[in-house]
Amino acid sequence: MDNDKTLFSSLKEVLDTFKLCLSENKEVYLEHYVAGWRGLVKFLNCLGSVFGFISKDAVNKIKILVTHMEGENGSQYVTVQSMVKYELDNELVDLTKRGIHPESGCRTLLRLHRALRWLELFLERLRTSNEDGKTSVMCSESYNESLAQHHPWMVRKAAGMAFCVLPGRPAFFEVMNVGPPEQVVAMLGEALPLISDVYQITEEFYAQHNMLDLP
Ligand code: 1Q0
């Protein structure tokens, strides 16, 4: 996957993947969740090598989840809900401090889940911004409201520096390859409620199981 240099054709396709995440009874399919993140990482890679440390971490987390999904207990890793139940029932999660399960599916997914909140906040700002809106400001505000609260000082600092070199809104819209700005805004308006649903459902499920602070 590290060597996957194929460019995605449009951000719409990536965001559409998140639509596929929800089953009829509101479970979150890991396969599509992971596919969505893969697509986002490709997008991130298009923005330049300063984001390499972010994309590396995301790729690493995706790989951990895929290893579980393709492993001998893969049938337990179909949805977020089945994964959580399986890992909790079999004591495969470090609940209070880091221990013998540093790569549990639950703690790994939680990191991506928190990043999904950043994505939701960022895309919402992008959607409602005007032509001269600053992507670096939108990005850091969204980060401060979400992921930053879980990151140590060094990571926050490095992230802040990377945000400064984000391209402006017009260049961003272009890389998204969705069409003219009105179309981007419309696409975001359609995609965001679904991303938000996936986020909320995961959040509530993790909360019910007291797992929002996994080490
Ligand atoms: C567009 C700019 C992208 C900015 C992404 C914001 C996220 C910043 C995160 C910085 C984290 C970096 C490195 C490592 C962090 C880990 O310590 C942390 C915790 O893990 P652990 O194992 O140490 O407990 N990891 C995380 O918090 C996971 C972070 C995953 C970030 C995944 C970001 C993938 C980004 C996709 C970009 C999508 C852009 C789409 C926008 C489209 C709009 C045009």
Automatic annotation (TrEMBL):
It catalyses: N-(hexadecanoyl)-sphing-4-enine-1-phosphate(in) = N-(hexadecanoyl)-sphing-4-enine-1-phosphate(out); N-(9Z-octadecenoyl)-sphing-4-enine-1-phosphate(in) = N-(9Z-octadecenoyl)-sphing-4-enine-1-phosphate(out). It is a peripheral membrane protein. Keywords: Cell membrane, Cytoplasm, Endosome, Golgi apparatus, Lipid transport, Lipid-binding, Membrane, Nucleus, Transport. Transmembrane segments: none annotated. One of its GO terms (molecular function) is ceramide 1-phosphate transfer activity. Gene3D superfamilies: Glycolipid transfer protein (1.10.3520.10). It comes from Sparus aurata (Gilthead sea bream). It comes from the Eukaryota. This is Ceramide-1-phosphate transfer protein. The keyword Transport applies. Its main location: membrane. Residues 29-177 form the Glycolipid transfer protein domain. It is found in: Cell membrane; Cytoplasm, Cytosol; Endosome membrane; Golgi apparatus, trans-Golgi network membrane. InterPro entries: GLTP_sf (IPR036497), Glycolipid_transfer_prot_dom (IPR014830). Belongs to the GLTP family. The keyword Nucleus applies. One of its GO terms (biological process) is negative regulation of interleukin-1 beta production. GO terms for cellular component: cytosol; endosome membrane; Golgi apparatus; nuclear outer membrane; plasma membrane.
